[in-house]
Amino acid sequence: MRGLGVLRREIVGLCGALALTACGSPAPERAPNTINFSILSAESRESAIGDWTPFLDDMAKATGLTVKPFFGSNYTALIEAMRFKQTDVGWFTNQSGLEAVRRAGGEVFARSVNPSGVDGYEAVIIVPKGRGITLERLLACDRSLNFGIGDAKSTSGTLAPMTYLFAPRGIDPNACFKTVRSANHEANLFAVGAGTLDAATNNTASMERLAMLETPLARSTMQRVEIIWRSPRIPEDPMIWRKDLDPQIKAKVADFLFSYGVGDTPEAERQRAILKRIQTLPFVPADETHLIPVREMEATRDLLEAKQRGDGAAIARAQAALDAVRTERAALEAAR
């Protein structure tokens, strides 16, 4: 159950997005051969700028396009920016990517590849090490703990823990904890490390990212947190462009993306070092079937919540949606 607190956060995010898009006004005229590239906001804006700028600079050189980064304050802002054609291409989480496809005319064309060799990542719940906060205590729901959750559109920060942990137990985080704070993974990780949060959602990719920094703050933070819950493995994140983007621009972007970091030349090695900073191996092609697992998670969560409410009509709708996506997944697996 998402609860009123999550709903309020979604409304706040939507208001911010509407302000960003000037209340639905048409996107401004754009110079030819220019694309706006949006970056998912699981980390701070400063971290994203440092990690993504070399990649976007290489894209501009290789394609001849002017590539402008777009950093939204939350996932809703990124979805709305694509909806109003203020952005053209972007790296989304699975859930926010699904929203971009449904509401913003987006189309999955690529996905990242986990550099660890194990494709995919896990949502986790972290707590301060040595404080004795176990999963059992977390689920006691005695309103004694301060909890950090992700953006409402975050797959690992919100959807996965709701689907796999809270909803099956009939738990509404807003009624379970003393306070519930929504923030990005980086902020939640540092807050748990500092002891200002008793527990928070995160994911293994974000934690691996922090460990890579090898700064005193990063090292001390990682030493002060521990994982008490892990989700099933979640597919890597999708790259999405607008369906109506100029086909010639699509071709230039695809040619760049699927050749970047490929090969055994010194240049390819340099490019792979840049990709490592954004935690991926060379991107690979993908399509809408990439979103089947997150659709199944979404339908499972909706069914559980409908059953908890005893809403017969909602149960029927959610069960039909879940059956449909499972049939689609089975057909895809059989074809493979």
UniProtKB/TrEMBL annotation:
Keywords: Signal. PROSITE patterns: PROKAR_LIPOPROTEIN (PS51257). The keyword Cell wall biogenesis/degradation does not apply. InterPro entries: PhnD (IPR005770). Gene3D superfamilies: Periplasmic binding protein-like II. Pfam families: Phosphonate-bd. It comes from the Bacteria. PANTHER family: PHOSPHONATES-BINDING PERIPLASMIC PROTEIN. Belongs to the phosphate/phosphite/phosphonate binding protein family. This is Phosphate/phosphite/phosphonate ABC transporter substrate-binding protein. The lineage of its organism: Bacteria, Pseudomonadati, Pseudomonadota, Alphaproteobacteria, Caulobacterales.
